[in-house]
Specification:
The chain has 322 residues and is α/β, with parallel strands linked by helices. The chain is 39% helix and 18% strand. Strands 1-4-5-8-9-10-11-12 form an 8-stranded parallel beta barrel, surrounded by 8 helices. It has a two-stranded antiparallel sheet with strand order 6-7. Bound molecules: ligand PBG.
Length: 322
């Protein structure tokens, strides 16, 4: 035998020499959940180790994470039913706790990269990402609401807006408004290929944001398709997105690869709530080694072509790699 591939695996040092992919905290964004009030830290039942924080405790948590080397955060708000309505008007109320928290986070930690979520669902009494009329999700009418929300978040000082709703034309619409209003420095990470996935279940528990009727299949993509991802990526690229995101990550590694090979923009992958909870649940029962399963999943996401990974494992990864 002339070729013996095992020679390149014979010791840890040799294995390290030929290692192609490595994980870095520099690539990670830590998604966090915010609630109103003070002194609140409530664990999400379906996401062990992940909490909903009030602003005061979130500031402390961010500081802890920064000491561990995490520098990018994506904050999602959990709103009580009483503040929801059909037009998500709370989303652009300048006095709302989410916008106040974003402003405060950025004021306390100007050096971090702060990302926010642009979609109606946390504020919508219908639990949908778009405006609902007669059981239909309207597109262009939704854009106006997303536009107001985006300006309000940009004004609060966020570094990256994350339109997560899959309405057509939203990236161009938001980019235009931002530029007209003096926010040309505010970036857009578009949820480019966001699939109608079962893996968002625990996130909807965390935010109490499940749709009140129907599903999200008229706007989120069909898991059976990959060509549509190319159309979405073309549009986002033309419309001015700074990052293209694929979501979920693990069941969509082929889509991550497809976009990373066809687009020069940085590709982000969202390692979503269900992907986190599956590993946690199995590890808690002793069915698999949670730490190793975490490293392997994150590595596969990076290897498939993602530059940025949004992951609930960020803090744990940081603690284990200290
Ligand atoms: C909705 C939104 C969702 C997630 C982020 N933004 C869920 C949904 O589409 O219902 C999911 C994130 C996760 O599961 O971790 N705008």
């Amino acid at each position: 035998m002339l070729r013996r591939p095992r020679r390149n695996r014979k010791s840890e040092t040799v294995r390290n020499l030929i290692e192609e992919t490595s994980l870095s905290l520099k690539d990670m964004i830590f998604p966090m959940f915010l609630v109103d009030g003070s002194n609140q830290k409530i664990e999400v039942a379906s996401m062990p180790g992940i909490y909903r924080f009030s602003t005061d405790l979130m500031l402390r948590e961010i500081e802890t994470c920064m000491k561990l080397g995490i520098m990018a955060f994506d904050v999602f708000p959990a709103y009580p039913e009483t503040l929801k309505d059909s037009i998500a008007s709370e989303s652009y109320n300048p006095e709302t706790f989410y916008l106040k928290a974003l402003r405060e986070i950025k004021k306390n930690f100007p050096e971090i990269c702060l990302m926010s979520d642009v979609a109606m669902d946390p504020y919508s009494s219908d639990g949908h990402d778009g405006l609902v009329k007669n059981g239909k999700i309207l597109n262009d009418e939704t854009l106006e609401i997303l536009g107001r929300m985006s300006l309000a978040q940009a004004d609060a000082g966020v570094d990256i807006l994350g339109p997560s709703d899959m309405m057509d034309g939203r990236v161009g619409y938001i980019r235009g408004l931002l530029d007209e209003n003096g926010y040309s420095e505010t970036s857009i990470m578009s949820y480019t290929a966001k699939y109608a996935s079962a893996f968002y279940g625990p996130f909807r528990d965390a935010l109490d944001s499940a749709p009140k009727f129907g599903d999200k299949k008229t706007y989120q993509m069909n898991p059976a398709n990959s060509k549509e991802a190319l159309i979405e990526a073309d549009l986002d690229m033309e419309e001015g997105a700074d990052f293209l995101m694929v979501k979920p990550a693990l069941a969509y590694l082929d889509i991550i690869k497809l976009l990373s090979e066809n687009y020069p923009l940085p590709i982000a992958a969202y390692n979503v709530s269900g992907e986190y909870s599956m590993i946690k649940a199995a590890a808690n029962r002793g069915w698999l080694d949670g730490d190793r399963a975490m490293f392997e999943s994150l590595l596969s996401i990076k290897r498939s072509g993602a530059k940025v990974i949004l992951t609930y494992f960020a803090k744990e990864f940081a603690m284990l790699s200290k």
